[in-house]
């Protein structure tokens, strides 16, 4: 299977187009009322000494390409990885560099890995765990089923798709399966599916990591290994077990399958007849069809946190590839139609008793929880500190609780809340939906 993953050289045409204007550092909204707040987690934590946010990453890329910067400088290597790859800077940029910013950052990391320097020592444990256990949590495969224990105890077991057919594959993801706090997400999701009579199943111990973690830290080979495995498994499940829909409650898994897997030459063939959806899309469709009805009142005043991987990472950019509209490689426009901004908010507003209030930085301007891009592993203290900033912003809105649709955000934001002694807790949208259903 061939993979079209660009090298730093392939992207050189674009990172030289950064004008170093600095727009990437701050989220702007014309309102009313207008506001401007920092958007780059790294810049917020370490200061903008000329190399944080996307203009600094463009300078890094130029230095690597002309040989003036090398990965054997530990400070430089660390600076490459001091980034959550959240795409906040990309949302602000308005020049031809814009559509390619996260890819340039990850291409530099791939270059570092190829030269034997990356990722950082703590992050290498992630990759080693992927090779040994097919997950980044160093958890034995049998632990993937720990979250299902309440269902076995209640005598409502979940189908094993290795043995029984089902129309829906619930692709749980590693964070929901191995992280004790985030286990609440797949548990709530499965309870909802059972209440609604959805014909679904899981892969259990045989589920393999989506590969997003490896891709974000620059290990393209490990990503390709697990992604190839998954694509072949999905095709087999479709042909032999009748799977028509893959549903994931994990923003990272959803983003990887929707955006990273399409880099495979076999994607269209292997995924023919299979629809990939995030849980909120799946449930929103049922709600619109009248099959999801809320009976219980949930008297919560909440604010909503847009995860990076279900938001701006799903932007589709229009680029003038051949120069027929403006000039070759020109950034023309951005399509946000695949970003999951409205659907979660529509569901929240439909739940009896829920009051939704918004933070300042939302949708494409959402402030990252701080855990992505390998930061939670490489710089754990910074990740929780950044999460506490987002929790504080949630508190400023007057909300009592924060809602999101990502188990990674679920864990990190709750850690950030603990760090500052806040009473605000982060809940997945499925958790509040579960409460609203009879």
Structural class: alpha/beta
CATH architecture of the domain at 130-288: 3-Layer(aba) Sandwich
* Strand residues, percent: 5-15%
Poorly predicted sequence stretches spanning 5 or more consecutive residues: none
- Amount of helix: 40-55%
Total strand segments: 13
Helices, strands, pairings?
Elements: H1 12-15, E1 26-29, E2 35-38, H2 41-46, H3 53-66, H4 74-81, H5 88-92, H6 101-114, H7 121-133, H8 149-153, E3 159-160, E4 168-171, H9 174-178, H10 184-196, E5 200-202, H11 212-216, H12 220-241, E6 245-248, H13 251-260, H14 267-270, E7 275-278, H15 279-288, E8 301-304, E9 316-320, E10 330-335, H16 342-350, E11 355-356, H17 375-378, H18 380-396, E12 401-404, H19 407-419, E13 425-428, H20 429-436
Parallel strand pairs: 3-5, 4-5, 4-6, 6-7, 8-11, 8-12, 12-13
Antiparallel strand pairs: 1-2, 9-10
